[in-house]
Amino acid sequence: MKKSRLIVVMVGVLVLGAFVTGALAQGKLLCISPYKSHRGESTVDQCLAKGDEFAIVDQYGVVHILNKREVELTKAFNPQIFQQKAFSIKYQELAPEVKLFGTTVKTSQPKPSSQ
Questions:
Q1: Which of the 8 DSSP states describes residue 35?
Q2: Are 98 and 25 in contact (CB under 8 A)?
Q3: pTM of the prediction?
Q4: What pLDDT score does 16 carry?
């Protein structure tokens, strides 16, 4: 009886983990500083240097505010994420998607010439 309960609990945890991972698979890095309106005129890194705050907002509207420690660690592992254009919540539809869990944003890079 205890083994069957343990198996049910483990399966439930795995299903819940897969659901949560799928829900957080994509999001947008948005400036959440009050009275700021960014429309891609500067990078996230430049805005952070000015003291702006950022959050990752997933496709369901769940917000994760990045604290200073998270910004530092993310820069250490994935500095290019902060080189993307900065957008505020007002212009969130223009912001590029950030793929989470080990992948990075797609940046526009020149294609190699085929010679």
A1: T
A2: no
A3: 0.62
A4: 53
Do 37 and 90 form a contact (C-beta atoms < 8 A)? yes
Residues written for the chain: 115
- Residue 96's CB is within 10 A of a number of other CB atoms, namely 15
DSSP state of 88: B
pLDDT in tens, 17-68: 554 444 445 899 999 998 888 999 999 999 999 999 999 998 888 999 999 9
- Identify the pLDDT of residue 30: 93
Mean pLDDT of the chain: 78
pLDDT value for 35: 84
List own/partner pairs for 51-59 with CB under 8 A and 24 or more apart.
52/86, 54/29, 54/30, 54/86, 55/29, 55/30, 56/27, 56/28, 56/29, 56/30, 56/98, 56/100, 57/27, 57/28, 57/30, 57/89, 57/92, 58/23, 58/24, 58/26, 58/27, 59/23, 59/26, 59/27
